[in-house]
Amino acid sequence: MTYHLITFGCQMNYSDSERIDSVFENMNIKSAEKNKADILIFNLCSVRQRAVDKVWGMLKNIKTQKHRKHPSASLGTGKSTENTKIKKIIIILTGCILPADKDKLKDKVDLILDIKNLVSWPNIIRDYFFTNYKLRITNYEPFKSYFSITPKHSSPFTAYIPIMTGCDNFCSYCAVPYTRGKEYSRPAEEILKEVNKLCVQGYREIILLGQNVNSYQSFMSFPPPIVVEGRLQRESPGTSNCLFAGIPACAVMTKDDVVNFPILLKLIDSIPGNYWLSFLTSHPKDMSEELINCFKECKHLMPYLHLPLQSGSDKTLKAMNRKYTAEQYVKLIHKIRKRFVNNSYIAISTDIIVGFPGETKKDFEATAALMKKIKFDMAYLAEYSPRPGTAAAKLKDNVSSAEKIKRKNYLNEILKKTALENNQKLVGQTISILAESIKDNFAFGRTNMMKNVRIKLDTKSTESIKTQKILIGQFVKIKIIKAGPWGLEGEMVKK
Ligand code: SAH
Ligand code: SF4
Ligand code: F3S
């Protein structure tokens, strides 16, 4: 019995897929290529119409070959059972799916499973196979956080750790509050244990995930755990070791105290190890002073921030229900950048939507002007796509597709210039990068500002190639010798 998992969407969905992989592996169902698998799983993203259309197209194609011959199955038993011959491909749909998209796709799939019920998937799938009748149950067992499942990380050195899911912000264009539901924050202790384990295993990069990490909030019973020699331990209150992220816990903690996002960051940062720490995604309205200070206080925190702007027009921002003005955003960026002095630098990336309903040329020009002013290091530009059920879907999608593309290309040109300008300032610096891969005599990696780097390798001897391969997943010292808009070139610095 085999499965194949296809993931769409953001890092949050990719992170969920690592937990899906782990569940299937525990059921003794192995991963296989798409056209050989018995079970096909689509982990969907409803944020834009394009991904939904793509899945629709793929499902139509699969339907024609749905009754392939299959070998005997062994479902979770570890043994082959001759009489459980499966004769068709089972298609499972999960992820962030809007109700309207669910309706559209439901007849093309066998099961629609809620990712939040991942803990129950083995039972649901077994029942499906053995009773052979169609069920589409979402609440099979009482909810148990699927985050407690240990994921099968796809990288041995970079780990994405969800700290929360859902969103209560209801930006008018966005599907997320309707697909992932209300905000839920994982208990701090569970997160700390997971990060600590990865640090002990030698992970080099920890990226915390959530739709709006800034609104993370959980409670931790007193006294909080601390890390002693790489292990989480509890200390009695009042002892000198009773530290909460370096602060004497007794001074700041009361029974069942609140852990907000900056405190969580400080707690994680207190875990020893040689690693980088980062987080995605922040909402400008929730970037508190306390959080901004973390960039100076937390030694592992990468000088990188993804802060979605969406639009530079106050009128559009209001219609988007973003709850900040262009001026407030600019002030915030200044405040953050002011923390980085003496040649230190923070890279800032953003998300922008072009062609939101009612976006006039003037509104668009305000976005373009703001992009020029802020000089982003990276921007993810999207053409507005109406999502059924959201507030903006009631507004007329009155910017033509051709105009949206034109606007997007225009912003891309601005980004190209500012990113190049920013990258050129880094030329000549000697820095550490995280080496990620080697291909065709080049090593590829990333700086702690999330900038891609390419390094020409010394390939004179087979011995040097061997030693260079060992560098993957490690921090490597390089000198930046050249800059482009989308990345840097560097050379290895001899020790
Ligand atoms: N939670 C994050 C990301 C949400 S979705 C945040 O608050 O920023 C990721 C990005 O997709 C958004 O930032 C937005 O730029 C884009 N997006 C969301 N809905 C969209 C829509 N209906 N059309 C086009 N882009 C959209
Ligand atoms: Fe969507 Fe807004 Fe929530 Fe981000 S903050 S997930 S854009 S509703
Ligand atoms: Fe898409 Fe869900 Fe992420 S809707 S953008 S995969 S949170």
From TrEMBL:
UniProt-listed PROSITE patterns: MTTASE_N (PS51449), MTTASE_RADICAL (PS01278), RADICAL_SAM (PS51918), TRAM (PS50926)
Superkingdom of origin organism: Bacteria
EC number: 2.8.4.3
4Fe-4S is among the record's keywords: yes
Domain MTTase N-terminal per the UniProt entry, residue ranges: 1-130
Lineage per the UniProt record: Bacteria, Candidatus Kueneniibacteriota
Summary of the function given for this chain in its UniProt record: Catalyzes the methylthiolation of N6-(dimethylallyl)adenosine (i(6)A), leading to the formation of 2-methylthio-N6-(dimethylallyl)adenosine (ms(2)i(6)A) at position 37 in tRNAs that read codons beginning with uridine.
InterPro entries: Elp3/MiaA/NifB-like_rSAM, Methylthiotransferase, Methylthiotransferase_CS, Methylthiotransferase_N, Methylthiotransferase_N_sf, rSAM, rSAM_horseshoe, rSAM_sf
SUPFAM superfamilies xref list: Radical SAM enzymes
GO molecular-function terms, A-Z: 4 iron, 4 sulfur cluster binding; metal ion binding; tRNA-2-methylthio-N(6)-dimethylallyladenosine(37) synthase activity
Protein name: tRNA-2-methylthio-N(6)-dimethylallyladenosine synthase
Gene3D superfamilies reported for this sequence: Methylthiotransferase, N-terminal domain, tm_1862 like domain
Residue span, TRAM domain: 424-494
Gene Ontology CC: one annotated term: cytosol
